Amino acid sequence: MPSTEWREVFLPEERTRHEQQVHVFSELQRKRLKKQGHGRALHRNQVAALKAFLVVEEGLPDYARQGIFAAPAVFEAHVRLSNGNFSSDRAPDIRGFAIKVLRATTPSSAEVEQNFTLVSQETLKVSGSADVVGIVDLSMSAPVAALRKAATKPGLTRSAVTNVRDMVKPFSGFATHDFFSIMPVTFGDYAARLKLSAASTTINKDARKDLAADIYGRLADGDLEFPLQAQFFEDESRTPIEDSSVRWDAPWHTVARLRLPRQGPDQALAETVEKSSFNPWIAAPEHRPLGELMRARRAAYELSWRNRDVDR
Fold first, then answer.
1. What is the pLDDT along the chain (312 residues), one digit of tens a residue?
2. DSSP secondary structure, 220-242, as one string
3. Which residues partner with 232 through β-bridges?
4. What is d(CA 195, CA 252) in angstroms, rounded to the nearest whole number?
5. What is the C-alpha separation between 198 and 175, in angstroms, rounded?
6. DSSP codes, 269-288
7. Which three-class secondary structure state does DSSP give residue 247?
8. Helix-strand-coil percent breakdown of the chain, rounded to 5?
9. DSSP per residue over 95-142, as a string?
10. What pTM did the predictor assign?
11. Beta partners for 187?
12. Residues in CB range of 300: below 8 A, 6 or more apart
């Protein structure tokens, strides 16, 4: 059964470390700005911007009736689909499925905005934010410098290779792939990882040639509906809060459905979504991100936002 006995682990001088780490992402963003103009450090390539509705399920158990899931409801939302590092849809990459729930209500808040950021991998094979920063730094380095760093940090190199192997696994398109939060969020006093299950099992073999054409082609034919599921913390051995490399051993519960109505490309919506911040720390108090990785991301998001030079 879900438990409220979860705990976060705070590292010594963690905030100082995070503030120092964000300079790697700032440098990455600066380099991309020179080549491509203003934009995000990561998940820069927006594949599609979509209108959506989040439909909260009826009859949820008590532990799931928290925050925006406290009662059956329908909330408007915006969705941003993205490639993580590359503009080419064919390139091996980590794909992003970001959801911005608009004007949601919770037992403690009215008109609250709730952001969920999910990716195409269930786990991330790192020991913490320092590994993530190291992998990004390695990817930014010139070949000779990268080889030197790889030689001095073999553990980091193994982590980078392992995660790249996950990225090169076939990606069938945004409608036919599952997406995960990797790290948990609070569900009131509980904690849970999130999963957006695929809306369709019908594979389009040409999807990887043009991911936007695939999703908009499907939406030209009708609505798409993705079950949003929560996997609740039960105990530290099977559902560890801080370890992003572990696939949790606990059941998934459908708490809502993300419905994408029939639609086509909308330039005005695309511009609005591109200018928006999809930040998991923009959240109802009941759904705070958990874990050292997420606390490090908070600092990175804030710096990336300041560097984007766009109006909120």
1. 999 999 999 999 998 988 888 877 777 667 666 666 666 667 788 999 999 999 999 999 999 999 999 999 999 999 999 998 767 898 888 999 999 999 999 999 889 999 999 999 999 988 888 887 777 666 555 554 545 555 566 665 666 666 667 766 889 999 999 999 999 999 999 999 999 999 999 999 999 999 999 999 999 999 999 999 999 999 999 999 999 999 999 999 999 999 999 999 999 999 999 999 899 999 999 999 999 999 988 877 776 666 665 433
2. HHS-EEEEEEEEE---TTTS-SS
3. 192
4. 8
5. 6
6. HHHHHHHS---TTS--GGG-
7. coil
8. 35, 25, 45
9. EEEEEEEEEE--SS-SSEEEEEEEES-S----SSHHHHHHHHHHHHS-
10. 0.89
11. 190
12. 18, 21, 22, 25, 41
Give the closest residue to 187 by CA, choosing from 133, 113, 106: 106
H/E run at residue 20: helix 14-36
Burial grade of 220 (CB within 10 A; 0-12, 13-18, 19 or more)? exposed
For 182, other C-beta atoms within 10 Å of its C-beta total: 19
User: H-helix or E-strand containing 150?
Assistant: helix 143-152
Residues counted in the chain: 312
Pair of tokens at residue 130:
């320092």
- For the record, the structure tokens of 209 come out as 């040639």
